[in-house]
Amino acid sequence: MSSEEVKAAKEPFKRINKKRRIQVFVAIVITFMMTTIGAFVVQEVGAVNQFFFPRAMGFVTVIDDDMKEWESVKFNDQNHLIFDSIFWGKEIVNNTINEKDVLLRIKDANGNVVIDEVQVPAGNSVKLEGLKRNEKYYIEIKAPQGKFYINAI
Predict the structure, then answer these.
(1) How many domains in the chain?
(2) Which of 31, 51, 53, 125 has its CA 20 to 30 A from that of 12?
(3) What pLDDT digit, counting tens, does each position of 105-137 carry?
């Protein structure tokens, strides 16, 4: 075989390789763009973000300093919380702004205590095992006098 015949035989393979490289590059660029757009949608669209990363912020003002009364935590102007998504971590966070520990208890819709007197230090969280999805839970705290921010994640 002459060198010209070898070059002529290799030419179709070079075109195929070039075409394949372009296809791979285009697939990588499209995947990158779709991933970036998806990340921005999850980050910036409130409904999508709340679905994948649910979070509720609650507050309570404790007036008495004797820590004898249980105070109900209000989440989004409701005195109950429903873990309605599979993405809930079922975790309660005592915000670092509080600077004081709180005692936490959780009741179900019938008033039965599901989780009783768990201490949550300021800036820490407690995992709530045994809570079910799509059920109302009433979260109550005992704490010294002051305003407390409690997050459910």
Answers:
(1) 2
(2) 31
(3) 999 989 889 988 889 988 888 998 888 888 999
